[in-house]
Specification:
Distance between the termini: 36 Å
Radius of gyration: 32 Å
Low-confidence stretches: none
Strand content: 15-25%
Largest sheet: 5 strands, mixed, barrel
Number of strands: 8
Structural class: alpha/beta
Shape: elongated
Number of helices: 4
Mean pLDDT: 91
Helix content: 25-40%
Length: 264
């Protein structure tokens, strides 16, 4: 009854099924690995955001590379804003996906070192973004700031090209090493996304907390791939049974016609 399984069509179908099963199982484990990675990153971010604020110089120093564990840690610093050497970061969007600038203001600490502070988002004055925009002033005098510590931006990590020949006081990436050369100062590695003091008006818009990665989606994909893997042999068995039944019925049809009495 099942000799048809040796036919060319069924041999190919069986080989494809045998190839699909381990492939789908492997894809399920890959999605599970992605879930574990994303879940671990979410936990790392939650731990950093929930940690108590510490002075910024406990976590970074000139030339320091901010680590994954230090990213999003809340830090404090005391000093004053240097608005004369303020810059803007091009092609940044706010929560509504509107394109504008991030305001990058040097913050001179009491010991003379400089901390880069991203004060938030402002809209561009025109479509070309060539003119330096009007920027609301930060608090004057000696103040204490709080923010989330962030690593230097790179093209590799952000996908943003570090273009040259930009308009004056405009940059593409926030990079402490680059700013140290421009400011001729000891600049702490990384920068902070300001959280306090909050601006008096609506601008600059402070940068919001990072969103969680959708780790459960990868877990669901893993289960889906494994269900597909289980469905392949089941589908193969159903198709084989159906074809065997159809062949048996086709073979029985002539016998029934021959055994039927002839019409008078």
């Amino acid at each position: 009854m099942y000799r048809f399984l040796l036919s060319r069509q069924w041999v190919i179908l069986t080989l494809v099924a045998l190839l699909l099963i381990p492939t789908m199982i492997r894809l399920g484990f890959w999605q599970l690995h992605r879930y574990e990675e994303r879940d671990a990153r979410n936990q790392l971010v939650a731990d950093a955001l929930g940690a108590k604020p510490v002075p910024v110089e406990k976590l970074t120093s000139p030339g320091h590379t901010v680590t994954t564990q230090q990213r999003y840690r809340t830090v404090t610093a005391e000093g004053h804003f240097d608005t004369d050497r303020e810059q803007v970061v091009r092609r940044r969007v706010n929560a509504d996906e509107e394109v504008g600038f991030h305001v990058l203001t040097p913050f001179v600490l009491t010991d003379g070192k400089v901390l880069l502070v991203n004060r938030g988002w402002i809209p561009a004055d025109g479509p070309s973004q060539t003119a330096f925009p009007k920027i609301p002033a930060p608090p004057a005098g000696r103040v204490t700031v709080t923010g989330r510590l962030m690593p230097d931006e790179t093209t590799e990590a952000s996908g943003i090209k570090n273009l040259k020949g930009l308009p004056e006081r405009q940059v593409m990436l926030i990079n402490s090493e680059q700013e140290a050369g421009r400011l001729d100062a000891r600049v702490l590695g990384g920068y902070i996304a300001l959280t306090t003091p909050k601006p008096k008006g609506d601008l600059p818009e402070l940068i919001g907390r990072p969103d969680d990665e959708n780790a459960p989606l990868n877990y669901a994909y893993a289960i889906q791939w494994w269900l597909f893997a289980a469905a392949v042999p089941l589908g193969w068995f159903v198709l084989a049974r159906r074809e065997a039944r159809e062949r048996a019925e086709a073979a029985a049809a002539p016998e029934e016609s021959e055994s039927a009495p002839a019409a008078v």
